[in-house]
Amino acid sequence: MKKENDYYMRDAMRQYGGGFVMILGTLLEHADPINYEKLEKTFPEYFKDYREIGEKLKIQNEHGEKLLDLKSKDGNYKLGDLIYDKQGNFLMTAEEAEEELIAMQKNEERN
Fold it and tell me: pTM above 0.70?
């Protein structure tokens, strides 16, 4: 079923997907509820992956930040990543974490 909150998922597909996923995002934008459901049942892995990316886009949009990169599969953070606690609450961006780490290291060097 077509969901209004899937806007960010579809946007993520169009921005970050390969050729096929980009077109899938556009198809979803124009699909009626029946065809939307058919596509979701046919490609559940894309819906799962891009819903997660879409959640990042939504949070960054709300915080006025731009997504520069996505979290890698190996768990290493890159510019633009969002860092969450174990309950899924937004904590900070990777840039903010890096700034805090640098400040802590400078503090340790002084002591």
Answer: no
Angstrom distance (rounded) from CA 61 to CA 59:
5
Q: What are 102's two structure tokens?
A: 């640098």
Helix and strand counts by DSSP (H, E) for the chain: 5, 2
Angle at 53 between CA 68 and CA 65, to 5 degrees: 40
Above 80 in pLDDT, residue 65?
Answer: no
What is the domain partition of the chain in residue ranges?
1-67, 68-111
Average pLDDT over residues 55-79: 57
Q: List CB contacts of 110: < 8 A, sequence separation 6 or more.
A: none
